[in-house]
Amino acid sequence: MCGIVGILGKDDVAAPIVEALRRLEYRGYDSAGVATIDKGEIARRRAAGKLNVLREKLAREPLAGRAGLGHTRWATHGAPIDENAHPHATDRVSIVHNGIIENFRELRDKLAAKGRNFQSATDSEVIAQLITAYIDEEGASPIDAFRRMLSRIRGAFAIAAIFAGEDDLILAARQGSPLAIGRGDGEMFIGSDAFALAPFTNRVTYLDEGDHAVVTRQGFEVFDSGGAPAQRREIVSSVSDAMVDKDGHRHFMAKEIHEQPEVVGHTLARFVDPTAAALRDFGAGFDFRKLDRLIVSACGTAYYAGLIAKYWFETWARLPVEIDIASELRYRDIPYPKKGGAVFVSQSGETADTLAALREAKAHGQRIGAVVNVAESSIAREADDIFQINAGPEIGVASTKAFTCQLVALASLAIKAGAERGVLSKDDQTALVAALLETPRLIAEALQQEKAIEKIAADLSKARDILYIGRGVSFPIALEGALKLKEISYIHAEGYAAGELKHGPIALIDEHVPVVVVAPSDRHYEKTISNMHEIIARGGRPLLISDKRGIKEAGDVWAAIEAPETHPLLSPLVYAVPVQLLAYFAATAKGTDVDQPRNLAKSVTVE
Ligand code: F6R
Prior knowledge:
The chain has an eight-stranded antiparallel sheet with strand order 3-2-4-1-10-9-11-15. A seven-stranded antiparallel sheet has the order 5-6-7-8-12-13-14. The protein has a five-stranded parallel sheet with strand order 19-18-20-21-22, with helices on both faces. The chain has 20 helices and 27 strands. Helix 9 links the parallel strand 18 and strand 19. The termini are close together. It has three domains: about 250 residues, Aminohydrolase, N-terminal nucleophile (Ntn) domain (Glutamine Phosphoribosylpyrophosphate, subunit 1, domain 1); about 180 residues, Glucose-6-phosphate isomerase like protein, domain 1 (Rossmann fold, 3-Layer(aba) Sandwich); about 150 residues, 3-Layer(aba) Sandwich (Rossmann fold). Helix 4 crosses helix 5 and helix 15 runs parallel beside helix 20. By secondary structure, the chain is an alpha/beta fold. The structure holds fructose -6-phosphate.
């Protein structure tokens, strides 16, 4: 994954590079580093750990130089230690790399056999060593050596390089990982995304797959995968340079959970006309009447949003949905229908598996819709139809507000499909849109249980294992609740369809295993409550999340969290909140790093 930055500046660049890296920490935070060209030579500072460690190092040991690179790492090959931190360097070149070089072992063995001395356990260092070999052994120029290096490596990458003796040159390449070039006034910038470049410029050009670029302070030239000069459009990026702050909350995650009434409202406004209580004409290019199924795919939390949408498309539009996790879908030999449709869901729009699954579906002639938060992302750029959500920057690694906003977009799309397929009458549509329009208020109501949830979560945080169960649209909420809890509190948690418990997982139940039961008063309520009583009969500790009526009818439980009554199929938009808060407060009770949990990164751009 990792974030990369490069600056050809007018003054010393170490400080602005660190500022840009701060905006890229969502891509990984195992280590960080900066390299510059100082008096013609390569100089570096690197540090394992979060960016602050590097910042402190730079304060003790400042780095001069007007040309430089920066990197924030999510470790793939080699432990997160100083030696493996980027930028990697020889006396000729320094490089930063995002992605994976698949054939690095073979290349490293050959280079090592010729006497090249590797300093790290990473796949990335082979890039610097290959370039150096071409320069030292064959007298290649930096550009020639860089191009020859590109022709030797296989995999997914974004790479940038600076060279000893070259104070006005950055070479950059993109193959599978995003890379943007920002134009300043006599200065040039490169970065993994427009957000990193935003403090410096909004004039941004994205490289296409297979492109490489020669960047100097005066401008840049792009070459396509065949080496021919190529024109790439410069856009005026809408990404704000204001670094989002926590707005008085302890963590970004808390802020983002609390933002949900507002951002769900903003997203609704994109898809729904509140005055007419009708869908806007948001132009989905699918001809829903002709589709005989819809493919939906995503990863993690976004996948659970897709799973909920499956219930919606099937109920409201009688449209069968084939949903799979993107890392599986991309390698399945699917008999794609002729002129079929596929929807990919991604907050970042850069998730490698989702992007690859999208390309696979596209190559098989499917029309591609994308529910994304980041408008300028790769997934947005490669889709035929973009269903953009208005969640705003999501900084906490655990996705919260993007999830509920994705649900708004998907629900609107499912209602549209139902209307076009003649399944939903005008009245049905109006009723569903009216119910959707109530969700910001209901989410705000659900948030009012925060104090009660904090208390319960303090107890929950002592458990070693926790199960989550739900039926129908509450099943994906059980999965999402368990994912949220494990990723930020490190408590082992699993979500199950309530009806599946008796087919195995019930063996886990004893007085030490709390079970979170997601059971709004819908048509599944009684069945789920029966499953809850099976848990109680085995000494288990159920924590029921339901509405007032549901809690009253359930009888004695270990604990209960009240949620507002909702439309039966739209309950996930509201029940997402208590499971997010439970995870959040269990994590704060345990004192974990909520916004940057171990081993994770916000944007997963490797397979
Ligand atoms: C969990 C979480 C992840 C992401 C997943 C997909 O809290 O954030 O599971 O949902 O990595 O990311 P996007 O939506 O950016 O494709």
